[in-house]
Amino acid sequence: MATKKKRTPNVQNDSWVVMAADSVIDTQKHDSDPAFVRLRNPATDAASLYMLSSGDVQLFEVKAFEEDFHSWFVGQTVQRDGRLLFVTPMDPLYLIIPYLIKSGKECKFQPMDQVLMDEEFPACSRLLSCTGSLASLHHIAEEKEVEKLKFHRYSQEKTMNWLKKKVERTVIVLKARNISVGEGVKSTTYIRVKSESDYHEEDYLRHAHGMISEYLSEELSKALLKHLQLPELTSPKVTEPPSKKRKLSELPVEAGEDYTKFNSSDFARKPPKKMTAAQKSLAKVDKSGMKSMSSFFSPKVKAEKN
Amino acid sequence: MDLSPFETDNSVSCRLASQIPDVCRTEDCCLGIDEAGRGPVLGPMVYGICFCPVSKKQELKESKVADSKTLTEAERENLFQKLDEAKSYIGWALHIISPNTISTSMLQRSKYNLNALSHDSAIDLVQFALDSGVQLKEVFVDTVGPADKYEEKLSKRFPGIEVTVRPKADSLFPIVSAASICAKVARDHVVKGWNFAEDLGEVDSAYGSGYPSDPKTKAWLLKCLDPVFGYPQFVRFSWSTAQTLMDSKGVTVHWDDDDEDGEKAAQRHNNRSMLAYFSASAGGNDQNPTRQTHRFFTERRLKSLDTL
């Protein structure tokens, strides 16, 4: 029954299903079309996809909703990749920060068109034409004006204050949208007793910080955590299973596992043991009303004598 | 036989019934159950019941109803006419299980097999007779699966009625033969004049008997296979005949309850496959393994892209 299906590799297709703000396709004022561009992702330092609206007025980030086993029916065609692309507005400053930091190491005031130079991603200079890019640079850099020419130098202090405001704003949205932020929800087996309103301010701050960190280098993310006065969490890494060998020690032996929890009423049953693929597919078959295999091997019921 | 209630929408199942004879509401009755169209890959499976007062059993026997398989189509039609004309003491009811229902039942996440579908249809029809006021005392059934288990199930479900489940009941009890004729005639009519909901263009209707072994049926199945959608609703997708053809000629479709093993499945379930320990370098494609995407995005299955 369970035939193995070969997965053919996903081929590139020339159409996408996209959700985008109206402003993305607003081409009235400018001649150029909105375009996908590859820019340096501030968090990963690698390429990511962004979009610049017509005339490079606005920056958008591109995120894809991607889950297994999805496809689209578009008009009279089938599109194999079931992705849904979101094109959402983004503050260009996040992309500018890494370049400023890099040039800021020389401790000099520099004109922005010299700061935003990247052989790998030449499109980065276009970020300067976004509305508000130049006007809001003072949030993250010190400015100097000499004979109508502007020069900038990265300021960690300003940047931290700016990012803090971003975090605080995100918290407001998280609360308004009723987004669950507590650590408790991380564990799927944990049944939450607390209502959503019991989240602490810190949970919100931490969640918002995590979201903002998606747009920051790791260093900045850590600095921001300090700036927000949040203690660093030592998250338990994927724990190695305890070694079978007992360690020798002089300390008195204590119970390694606590069986008393099995006595309490809220002890939940463990999920059933894992089955092999074959057993799984067998278990799925509805066997009601069918003879069991063993019945064919049992001695035959003797026919009644007439 | 008026099949229009089914033909208006042949994607769902449908019940057809004769008038209930008055005598059946007052006298003790016997009831036979049989089915038609269990094996074919095309068309519906039809469940039929026939009932009459116990006192009229002899009369029924004399009308020469016999197992529908031993009769020609013309004889069946003839006998059905006779049964229908004897409406003063014989009643019948049919449950037409559409091929679409069969496909979706057998292929749904929690599998619902043909035996269970059959049992439930039979139970439904008996209940229908009871609800209509038929004074049931005896029920005769051709078996589906082990007879003793089925008999036990039906007896439990209908206490106070004497249930007899036998293999080949359609040749043993005239009332079951009558039921089998009703079911078979209905199935023949439905299959012959199938209203295709799909726009099949020029595909001819020479699909033969509908049994997987019929070369005409096989040729038709090959001809009307759509690589994306497979078959019209006339075909039982759950039949291995149809499945094999779709697997080999159609586009592969993956469902999330497909069984799969190996590397891909392991990845999906977030554990490492045994093979991973032997490959050259694990985790090479991840640029920054220490950095995880924030759960806001992972919970919503949102990813950054680097190319389209």
UniProtKB/TrEMBL annotation, chain A:
Residues 28-91 form the Rnh202 triple barrel domain. Pfam families: RNase_H2-Ydr279, Ydr279_N. Signal peptide: none annotated. The keyword Nucleus applies. It is found in: Nucleus. CDD domains: RNase_H2-B. Its main location: nucleus. One of its GO terms (biological process) is RNA catabolic process. Gene3D superfamilies: 1.10.20.120, 2.20.25.530. It comes from the Eukaryota. Keywords: Nucleus. One of its GO terms (cellular component) is ribonuclease H2 complex. Residues 262-286 are annotated as: Disordered. Residues 94-224 form the Ribonuclease H2 subunit B wHTH domain. InterPro entries: RNase_H2_suB (IPR040456), RNase_H2_suB_wHTH (IPR019024), Rnh202_N (IPR041195). The RNase H2 complex is a heterotrimer composed of the catalytic subunit RNASEH2A and the non-catalytic subunits RNASEH2B and RNASEH2C. Belongs to the RNase H2 subunit B family. Non catalytic subunit of RNase H2, an endonuclease that specifically degrades the RNA of RNA:DNA hybrids. Participates in DNA replication, possibly by mediating the removal of lagging-strand Okazaki fragment RNA primers during DNA replication. Mediates the excision of single ribonucleotides from DNA:RNA duplexes. This is Ribonuclease H2 subunit B. It comes from Cottoperca gobio (Frogmouth). The lineage of its organism: Eukaryota, Metazoa, Chordata, Craniata, Vertebrata.
From TrEMBL, chain B:
Manganese or magnesium. Binds 1 divalent metal ion per monomer in the absence of substrate. May bind a second metal ion after substrate binding. Pfam families: RNase_HII. GO terms for biological process: DNA replication, removal of RNA primer; mismatch repair. One of its GO terms (molecular function) is RNA-DNA hybrid ribonuclease activity. A divalent metal cation binds at residues 34-35, 142. It comes from the Eukaryota. It catalyses: Endonucleolytic cleavage to 5'-phosphomonoester. Residues 28-251 form the RNase H type-2 domain. Its cofactor is Mn(2+); Mg(2+). GO terms for cellular component: ribonuclease H2 complex. Its EC number is 3.1.26.4. Belongs to the RNase HII family. Eukaryotic subfamily. The RNase H2 complex is a heterotrimer composed of the catalytic subunit RNASEH2A and the non-catalytic subunits RNASEH2B and RNASEH2C. This is Ribonuclease. It comes from Cottoperca gobio (Frogmouth).
